[in-house]
Amino acid sequence: MGGGFAGVSVATNLERLLRPEEAAISLINQENYWVYQPLLPEVISGLIGLTDVVCPIRQLCPRTNLVMREVEKIDLANKVVTVSPGFRPRLLEIPFDYLVIALGSISNFSATPGMVEHVKPFRTLADAVDLRNHLIHALDEAEIETDAELRRKLLTFVVAGGGFSGVEVVAELHDFVDKVRQNFPGLRNEKGRFVLVHAGDRILPEMSESLALFAHKMLVKRGIEIQLKDRLIGATSEKALFKSGMEIPTKTIVSSVPSSIPLVLEKLNCEKDGGRLKVNANLELVGHEGCVWALGDCASITTISGKRTPPTAQHATREAKTVSKNIGAAMHGGPMSPFAFEGLGKLGSLGHYSAVAEILGVRISGFPAWLLWRAIYLAKLPSLRQKVRIALDWFFVLLFPPDFVQMRVTRDAGIARQHLEAGETIFFQGDLGDNVYVIQSGECDVLRETEGNQQRHIATLGPGDYFGEMALLNDVTRNATVRARTKMDVLMVSKKDFEALKSSIPAFREVFTRLAQDRSSKTA
C-alpha cells in the first residue's frame, strides 16, 4: 500500500527477488504515477515541467498489479484490505498473504483554526500545481489592485516550517516572483515580502549548525525574513497568526507541517510510537511479525545503532530493500535482516544557484553544493526519459525566463447534474450510498429485489422528489434499485456535501430524517 519511494521500491525489488509463478504483487495507490519528491519545489517556479517529475508506476513495476483506489480499511486478523469504490459504488476487498504498509504521511491542519480553509499544504504534485496557480493569480490581481493594503497582502508570502521542504519552497517562491514580475508592468518596481517561520532555534535542523547558518544568511541576504522560535497557530483569509502574537497580513500561507499518518492507519489496531506505526528492527509491524511490514513516513523506525531514521528518500529506498529481503525470507524460510542504513548525507537547495550539502561527513555550500545537488538528484532519477527531460528543463531555464502560465484545474462541484434515458439504472440495490438525488424532470421507479431475484415495485417518483438519502443517513448500502421510467434530469448532492449540510443545518437534517422514517415504515 502506497506509491511513494517506499512502496514503489518494495514492488520493484520483489519483482527481482520473486519469480512470477511464486507471487502475485499488487500495489494500491490513488494515482497511477510516482513522484520524484525532492524536485517538487521546482514545479512551483516552472523550472521543471509538471510531468517531468512523475513516472507511471506501471512502467517502474511492469509485473505489479496497480489498484488505483484509496485504502478504506485494513483487516489484519482476516488478512484483507478494503479499497474505495470505482465508477460503480461497490467496495473491493483484496486478500493478502503478506502486507507492506507504506502510505506515508499527510498534512493535518484539523487542530488549528482556519488552517484547513486558508493554508496551502505542500506534499503532493497536486499541492504544487495548486500553489503555482494561486501564486500567478496573486500576481495578476496585485498588478491591477488600487487598494495599497490589499496589494501588500497579495505580494506577501508566508511559509511555515524551516526544514528542507519549507526552505526550498520559500526559496523557489522568491526566485519565481523576482524573475516573472518584470513581465507585469505594474509590479516592476514592487518587491514581494517573503517570511519563513520556524519553531526551532535554527532552520534546517537536519543539517550541521554551520551549514544551517550559511543557509540562514543566504536567504536573509536575498530579502527573505526568517522568524525563529515561533509557529503558525491560525489563519484567516486576510492574515497568518503566530504563537508569539505576531500577525502578518497575507493572501498566501504555505505549510508542510504538522503531519500525521493517514486516518486509516490511525484506526488500525496495532502498537504505535509517537503517532507512527511501531515496527521492530526487521521493519515488521509489532504484533504481526512475519506477515506485515511498515516503512517510510508512516512508520517509527530505529536503526540497529539506535538512531531514529528521518523521512528521506534515501532511507525509504533502503528500508524497501530490507522489507523485500525479509518477505523473501518469510516465504522461503531464511533469516530476517535488520535495518542498518545510517544515511550517506543530506542535500538542500536554497535556490538562485546555491545549496547546502553534507556527504559522508564532508560539508559543502554555495554553488559547488548546488552542482552536486543537481548531479546526485539527476543520477537517481529512475528512467532515462526523466533524466533527459529534466536535464533539458534545467538547460533551457538558463536561456529563457520561466513561464508563468496559470493552468486552471476544474474541481468536482458538490452539486452536479445527470441526464438519463428511459430504462437506465441510477443505482443498484447493494451499492454504497454516494449521492442524494433530486428529480428535475421525468420519472423513475424504485424496485426492491426479493427471493428468487424477483423485483417488487415500491414507488414511482417524479419532479421535485428526492431519493438516495436513506443509505447516507444510516451509513448502509442501498436497499433498492432506482431506474429511470422516462427521460430524466436529476441533481446529485455528494455524500461529503450532504453530510456537511446535515451537520450544519438542523432543519435540513430533520427533514431528511423524517422522510427516511416515513419511507421505511411504508416499505417495511
Task: Give a description of the structure.
This protein is α+β, with helices and mostly antiparallel strands. The chain is built from 15 helices and 33 strands. Strand 24 and strand 25 form a beta hairpin. It is globular, with a radius of gyration of 26 Å. The two termini are 42 Å apart. 35% of the residues are buried. The mean pLDDT is 90.
Major beta sheet, strand line-up: 10-17-11-12-13
Structural shape: globular
- Spatial gap, N to C terminus: 42 Å
Kindly provide the radius of gyration, computed on alpha-carbon positions and rounded to a whole number of angstroms: 26 Å
Helical residues, percent: 25-40%
The secondary structure category is alpha+beta
Biggest beta-sheet profile: 5 strands, parallel
Average residue-wise pLDDT = 90
Strand content: 25-35%
Instruction: Name the poorly predicted regions.
Output: none
Number of helices: 15
How many β-strand stretches?
33
Provide the fold topology.
Layout: H1 5-17, E1 26-28, E2 33-35, H2 41-44, E3 54-56, H3 57-60, E4 65-67, E5 71-75, E6 80-83, E7 92-95, E8 99-101, E9 106-107, H4 115-118, E10 120-121, H5 125-144, H6 148-154, E11 156-160, H7 164-180, E12 193-197, H8 209-221, E13 224-227, E14 232-235, E15 239-242, E16 247-249, E17 252-255, E18 259-260, H9 263-266, E19 272-273, E20 276-278, E21 292-294, E22 299-300, H10 313-332, E23 345-351, E24 354-359, E25 362-366, H11 367-380, H12 384-399, E26 415-420, E27 425-427, E28 435-441, E29 444-450, E30 454-461, E31 466-467, H13 469-474, E32 481-484, E33 488-494, H14 495-504, H15 506-523
Parallel strand pairs: 1-4, 8-21, 10-17, 11-12, 11-17, 12-13, 20-22
Antiparallel strand pairs: 2-3, 5-6, 6-7, 9-18, 14-15, 15-16, 19-20, 23-24, 24-25, 26-33, 27-32, 28-31, 28-33, 29-30, 29-32
